[in-house]
Structure formats: C-alpha cells, structure tokens
C-alpha cells in the first residue's frame, strides 16, 4: 500500500479498467527543466503505448510541484481521489496489468530493472549536476525553476531547491566530482545502452521493455536540451545509435507523435 495526497494506492485502484477522468499534471512549460521533461516523456510514452493517453487529460499548473506530498514526483496522475507520483507510476501500471515486462523471463526482468536503476541513481544525478552545478547553466535553471513566482518567494524557492539538489548529489556521490569525471561517468552509461542496442531493436532484444521507455524519455530530453554548457548533448553525439533508437522508438511505438504537448492540454 502506498500513500498519496488525496488517498492511498490500494487494490481499489487495481481495477483493470482505466479510470475515468484521469489527469496528468505537470509544471508550466517555462518552469520545466531537462529532468522534468525527461520524466514527462517517460510517463506519456507509457500512456501512449498502453493506449490510454487519449483518455488522460493533461494539465499544466504553476503550482504543480506543491500538489504532491513527495517532492520531485512530477509529473503525477490524479486518479479518482488519489495522486500517483512519477516514482509510483510503474507500480500503478502493474496494478492495471499494463506492465511491459510481465511476461519476460526472470533474468531479463532483473537486467531491465538494473538498467532503470542506473537511470535513476546515475543518469538523473548527472542531469541534475549539469543543470544546478555547472555555472554556465545554473542561471537559466534558476530562472526556469522560479518562473512565475514574485520576489522574495522566487529567491527562497530556488535557494531551497539548490540545497535539496546538493544534498541529493552528495548522497548519489556526484557533488564533489569534477565535470570531467561526470562526463566520464555519463560516457560509461551511454556506452552501456549503445552496446545493448547495436544488434537489437530494443535494449533486451526484439521486445519493448520498461527500460526502453525510460531510455527513450531521457535521451530524447537530452537531444532537445539547449543548455549553454551542454556537455550532456555533446557526449551523447558520440553515440549516434542512441539518437537512431529514439527515432525508431517514436516511429514504432508513438506513431511519430510529439509528446511535448497534448490535444487535451489545459494550462488554466
């Protein structure tokens, strides 16, 4: 059982049918930084693949970050009276029998879960490092994060977020690394993904998995990023197979549809 803002993720949400009036909440476009976009691409790709994106209304809210109990869980779904944060999303899909990995052998599931863990414990910290720890990028990150908030609230929110990111990076082991060391770590991660995709359509063979969706979301966000010091994109250029993977993934699974917006989007 997992808790949410308005209720709990229990077997009551485990009904196999997709609920009515599901809302996908995210920040305003001007507030979204690279990590936010990557996570949103992951969630929306899952919804599209499972043919429920068109049953989900998308809302952009300036206070979306404050609508979840747990921070950094954007985007989130509002399902009935329950909030399903980004970190609970796979669990929620599993309750709906919408798990891409459910029929895979145990050893492949362990491998796929390991790749997702690498994204969450290594790639996301590297993305945050690029946004918050690199001087050339930090001002733009602060402007995005604090968009729409008056002073001195904007300054206070940005200060709190900086401290949160610093603490997170310390725990993840990236706070004291140099940019060169971070680039080396990033290259190792991208090389791992690239080698697995050299002879396979997907990361574990010919069948799409949860890990493929996560890889797509984060690589696509990096490809679209416009950082002043964009070592993420420059490093990614050394692995052209990953860009080809994103193109192929979009063509085969998303109908080449852009996940930037939605015909159901509501920015009120």
TrEMBL record:
Keyword field: Membrane, Mitochondrion, Mitochondrion outer membrane, Protein transport, Transport
Organism in which the protein naturally occurs: Hydra vulgaris (Hydra)
GN (gene name): MTX2
Chain ranges of the Metaxin glutathione S-transferase domain: 188-246
UniProt domain Mitochondrial outer membrane transport complex Sam37/metaxin N-terminal: residue ranges: 46-159
UniProt xrefs under Pfam families: GST_C_6, Tom37
Family indicated by similarity: Belongs to the metaxin family.
Cellular-component GO terms for this entry: SAM complex
Location in the cell: Mitochondrion outer membrane
Name of this chain's protein: Metaxin-2
Predominant subcellular localization, coarse grouping: mitochondrion
GO biological process terms held by the UniProt record: mitochondrion organization; protein transport
């Amino acid at each position: 059982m997992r808790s949410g803002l308005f209720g709990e993720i229990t077997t009551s949400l485990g009904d196999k049918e997709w609920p009515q009036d599901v809302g996908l909440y995210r920040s305003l476009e001007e507030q979204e930084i690279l990590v936010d976009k990557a996570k949103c691409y992951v969630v929306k790709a899952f919804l599209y693949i499972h043919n429920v994106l068109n049953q989900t209304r998308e809302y952009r809210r300036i206070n979306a970050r404050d609508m979840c109990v747990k921070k950094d869980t954007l985007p989130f779904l509002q399902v009935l009276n329950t909030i399903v944060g980004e970190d609970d999303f796979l669990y929620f899909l599993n309750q709906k029998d919408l798990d891409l990995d459910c029929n895979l052998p145990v050893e492949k599931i362990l491998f796929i879960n390991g790749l997702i863990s690498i994204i969450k414990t290594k790639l996301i910290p590297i993305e945050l490092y690029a946004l918050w720890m690199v001087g050339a990028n930090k001002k733009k990150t602060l402007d995005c994060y604090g968009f729409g908030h008056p002073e001195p609230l904007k300054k206070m929110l940005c200060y709190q977020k900086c401290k949160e990111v610093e603490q997170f990076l310390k725990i993840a082991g990236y706070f004291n690394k140099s940019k060169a060391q971070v680039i080396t770590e990033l290259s190792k991660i991208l090389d791992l993904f690239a080698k697995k995709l050299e002879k396979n359509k997907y990361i574990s063979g010919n069948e799409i998995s949860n890990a493929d969706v996560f890889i797509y979301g984060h690589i696509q966000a990096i490809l679209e990023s416009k950082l002043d010091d964009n070592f993420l994109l420059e490093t990614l250029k050394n692995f052209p197979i990953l860009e080809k993977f994103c193109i192929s993934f979009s063509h085969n699974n998303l109908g080449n549809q852009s996940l930037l917006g939605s015909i159901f989007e509501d920015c009120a």
